[in-house]
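User: Show me an example of a complex going from sequences to structure tokens.

Assistant: Sure. Here are the input components:
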Amino acid sequence: MMRLLAFQLVVLLALLASPVLAVQPSEMLADPKLEARARSISEELRCLVCQNQSIDESDADLAHDLRVLLRARLLAGDSDAQAIKYIVDRYGQFVLLKPPVEPATYALWLSPLLLVLFGAAGIAVYLRRRRAQLEPAALSAAEEAELKRLIEEGGP
Amino acid sequence: MRRRLIFVLPALVFLALAAAFYAGLDRDPQLVPSALIGKPVPQFALPALLDGNDGLKTADLKGKVVLVNVFASWCVPCRAEHPLLMRLAKEGVELDGINYKDKPEDAKLWLTNLGDPYKRIGCDLEGTVGIDWGVYGVPETFVIDRAGTIRFKQVGPLTPDVINDTIVPLVRKLSK
């Protein structure tokens, strides 16, 4: 009986467990709506210490400070865009995990499109050439005459 | 002619890529271009670390060329660059410090043991002013011109090369 209870407890606890999060309960805002906004913004901001994690995932000290700061901005009434701008003003565009479309990033955004266009052009050229090869060549004058002779004589 | 171009093209693309990658070899991917270069010093006011001093605020950084060094006693590279800061101070470069997320008693001990190269030191206990300065890796050193504009930022410890090749010439140029 005790064993079954213990087993059930373990299963229950395993189900309750959630993935380890960098965001500490003490950082969270009381207002769930505001907290949800803070979470979605911080998922888009790069942690400058680890650089390939967002500040939402990072355990770095600075990421913690930025999460707290971001929540303070939201509490103070900043819109999402204002709060993001506040951090970009201090750390630059680099903190945006998704780079904005602007002259400096045109190459980044447009190169996939260019590659597709190049590929499509290549395929078009290839197909046209192949069709030209598949089409039988016209008969020469001698062949034409031979054919006519064969038809008129009704057999070789 | 067009045939030959098709064979040469991949080689050209390869050469261009190789050149780009070679140029990138020496670049440190950890370095983030500072958003604050060419911008005025952020608005801030920090209490003094040492008794009897004034602390550090925006107005202190106007009217002269000054270096601002962000340091902490817990930061190992800070210890490595400290003798260079002492040298700069001895050479007459004005140096102010921001003590970043440090315990004041630790920072005081640090200055007692290693020497104090700073004219003013502000205590940034929470690191909020550090964020205003775009600090992400202590130590960081900023060069501020007379108008109070940030002209250069070194992320990580200063080295003799950076001081001799960049900071000293820049300070000299701005001081003219």
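The lines above are the inputs; the final block is the predicted structure for all two components together. Chain B touches chain A at residues 29-30, 32-36, 42, 101, 126-128, 131-134, 136-137 (CB under 8 Å).
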